[in-house]
């Protein structure tokens, strides 16, 4: 199978209507243009409420730009597609289905389960959940639930995987383990990854390119390239210098409230 996953974002703007006629419109994303090459890992970082999730939702096809276009492999994104997998912070697993059933749910809907049953186990193994096939979501830790969500997205062989703070609710130790697992999966499957995160260290640890956004409306302020081999040393000089560079671009001075909602 030919895997691409090239993304072209062209002058994308998103304006939300106010709640009623008197309420002001909200411009969440302003004229963002960028190109993401197949197999790149991009992190989108910016202040809370700046418009990161809105941009990601438009990449997913869950929202449409007010103006501008987004294309994946030269096809305009007009709605959700199995070729663009999604993993959110609170990935909702079906509580009445066990791990195996959650991962295979999409295959069952597409009537492909009997043909591709072996792959269900393959992806459960890939995310490190061997032995947990019959366990239900309420018996899993948050990190394990996120890995089920990842396996569920991966089984569709997406060209692009979109993440909205997938590890935001996890403790630091679990998050670091999942970072390493995700990098291995990314290297094996060569999927284009786009991850919204608040965490500068997470961005520098995972991404090839970091899109630094301004406070709302999100404008692409700068792109920081991270040219360090994996696995990256979080305490390495270059790593720390890159973290500082991103923080400088985001104008983070260390003062309280600096990375919080701006308006
Ligand atoms: N459906 C909507 N209708 C109206 N306004 C919206 C809608 N979705 C988002 N917004 C507004 O757009 C702005 C950007 O929101 P968005 O969720 O994209 O920010 P974010 O950068 O992802 O924030 P955070 O990091 O806190 O999750 C916010 O002011 C938000 O209130």
TrEMBL record:
InterPro entries: AAA+_ATPase, ABC_transporter-like_ATP-bd, ABC_transporter-like_CS, ABC_transporter_ATP-bind, P-loop_NTPase. Its EC number is 7.6.2.9. Keywords: ATP-binding, Nucleotide-binding, Transport. The gene is tauB. It comes from Ligilactobacillus salitolerans. This is ABC-type quaternary amine transporter. Residues 7-240 form the ABC transporter domain. It holds the Pfam family ABC_tran. Coiled coil: none annotated. GO terms for molecular function: ABC-type quaternary ammonium compound transporting activity; ATP binding; ATP hydrolysis activity. The lineage of its organism: Bacteria, Bacillati, Bacillota, Bacilli, Lactobacillales.
């Amino acid at each position: 199978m030919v895997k691409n996953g090239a993304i072209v974002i062209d002058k994308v703007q998103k304006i939300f209507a106010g709640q009623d006629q008197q309420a002001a419109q909200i411009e969440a994303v302003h004229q963002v243009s960028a190109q993401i090459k197949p197999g790149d890992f991009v992190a989108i970082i910016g202040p809370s409420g700046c418009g990161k999730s809105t941009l990601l939702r438009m990449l997913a096809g869950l929202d449409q730009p007010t103006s501008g276009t987004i294309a994946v492999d030269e096809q305009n994104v007009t709605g959700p597609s199995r070729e663009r997998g999604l993993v959110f912070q609170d990935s909702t697993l079906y509580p009445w289905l066990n791990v195996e059933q959650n991962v295979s749910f999409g295959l069952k809907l597409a009537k492909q389960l009997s043909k591709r049953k072996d792959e269900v186990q393959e992806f459960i193994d890939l995310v490190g959940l061997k032995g947990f096939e019959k366990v239900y979501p309420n018996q899993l830790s948050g990190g394990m639930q996120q890995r089920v969500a990842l396996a569920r997205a991966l089984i569709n062989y997406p060209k692009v995987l979109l993440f909205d703070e997938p590890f935001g609710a996890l403790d630091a130790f679990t998050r670091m383990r999942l970072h390493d697992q995700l990098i291995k999966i990314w290297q094996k499957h060569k999927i284009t990854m786009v991850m919204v995160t608040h965490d500068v260290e997470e961005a520098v640890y995972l991404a090839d390119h970091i899109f630094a956004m301004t406070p709302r409306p999100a404008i692409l302020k700068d792109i920081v390239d991270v040219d360090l081999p994996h696995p990256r040393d979080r305490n390495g000089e270059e790593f720390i210098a890159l973290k500082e560079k991103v923080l400088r671009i985001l104008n983070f001075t260390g003062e309280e409230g600096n990375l919080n909602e701006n308006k």
